[in-house]
Structure formats: C-alpha cells, structure tokens
Design a protein that fits this description.
219 residues; globular; Rossmann fold; single chain
Length: 219
C-alpha cells in the first residue's frame, strides 16, 4: 500500500505536501538499544529544547553548552534553527502553518537523536505552546524545555541583522514578537535569564543535568 494521505500547508505562497505515514510500516527494534548506548557513552541522552524570542540567546547558549559538554567528553549535537532551514526545512516559510510544520519535523528528528544516545540541543523560537507540547508528548520525560527569558528591548539591541527594525517597518511579515505572537512557556523545566553572563547560564544548565542524572559530576 502507498501513502495514506497528504497534508498541504501554505508556506510563503508555496504549497508544501507532506505524506502521511504508510499503513504498512512497522518500527524496527534494534539490538543496540538506547541503554547500551548510554553505557558506552557514560551519560544518558536527553533533549534540551531552547525556546525564546529572536535575539534571546538560544543559539549562543546552546552552542556554548555543547562546547562545555564536548570538553567533558560527552556526545552532543545542536539542531539550530537557521541551519535546519538550509536543508531539512528549506521548503518552509515563516507563516504560522509553516512554523508548526517546522517544529513537527524537528521534534521527530530530535526523538531519533535521543534514541541514538545523544544529548541533543534544539535552538528554535518555537513560538506556540501547542507545538512545544507536541514535541514533549513525542519525546516524553526526556524533553526539557529551557526558556531563554530576555526582554524584547534587549533582543532588539542584540539584533545585528536588523530584523526587528525591518519587521517594525513592515518589510518582514509575521515576525515573532512584533507581528506574530510568542507564547511564553507556562511550566518550563528551566528559565534562564539570558541577560546574565554566558558562563553563568551554562553553569545553571549543567547543574540541572547533574541533578537529573544525565551524567555524574567529575571530581
């Protein structure tokens, strides 16, 4: 049997067709399990989902945290918003519908990374609570929502690309925080004040990971 159905999403004037799951697919359970990978890696896998306004420091913090974890010998990967849109999500625009599909794809990829035994970090605005909840439902208890809390005025000051200025001038449509809403997390596992020093923010997350038992603090 072929694909059951397709879902069409309007994305910046283009139609994106997404096949539904085939009716004859069955999940294959590998002999190399997630727990065996954890034993080999000497750490548990987890999904750290960074969310916040553009300019809130999501990517900067995620990559700084990855660098620290790498230096400690742990297996990591950052799924960055801009990087993903160069390939996997290159066919998507920035309409609300396209943003929903963007986050759906990221959730599916992140789940596979968790199964692969990786500490995976995602840095996306992901403005809608419902979409973040879907990702949480998909990954389960290994989903950690990290809210990069930063005032809009600070985000605008950090905006080297001038995106906020262009959005206010009407040059960019549906820009989060200006002409499109951002729904703050209601119960995130972590709230990071990204107006503080980068090292302080990284340390806060590392402390949380130790408390969660992702890895043991090295003496």
């Amino acid at each position: 049997m072929g694909w059951l159905a397709t879902v069409k999403i309007l994305s910046g004037g283009d139609i994106v067709t997404i096949p539904s799951k085939s009716s004859n697919t069955v999940w294959h359970h590998a002999t190399v399990t997630r727990q065996r990978r954890a034993e080999l890696n000497h750490h548990q896998s987890i999904l750290l989902w960074f969310t916040g306004l553009s300019g809130a420091g999501k990517s900067t913090l995620a990559h700084a945290l990855e660098e620290r974890l790498y230096q400690m010998g742990y297996h990591t990967f950052v799924l960055d918003g801009d990087n993903v849109r160069h390939g996997l999500c290159g066919d998507l625009g920035f309409s609300n519908e396209a943003r929903i599909e963007n986050i759906r794809r990221i959730g599916e990829i992140a789940k596979l990374f968790v199964e692969a035994g990786v500490i995976v970090l995602t840095a996306f605005i992901s403005p809608f609570r419902a979409d973040r909840q879907k990702a949480r439902n998909l990954v389960g208890e290994d989903f950690v929502e990290i809210y990069c809390n930063c005032p809009l005025s600070v985000c605008e000051d950090r905006d080297v690309k001038g995106l906020y200025r262009r959005a206010k001038a009407g040059e960019i449509k549906e820009f989060t925080g200006i002409s499109s809403p951002y729904e703050e997390p209601e119960h995130p596992e972590l709230v990071i004040d990204t107006t503080k020093s980068l090292d302080e923010c990284v340390d806060q997350i590392l402390t949380y990971l130790v408390q969660r038992g992702v890895y043991e603090r090295k003496s």
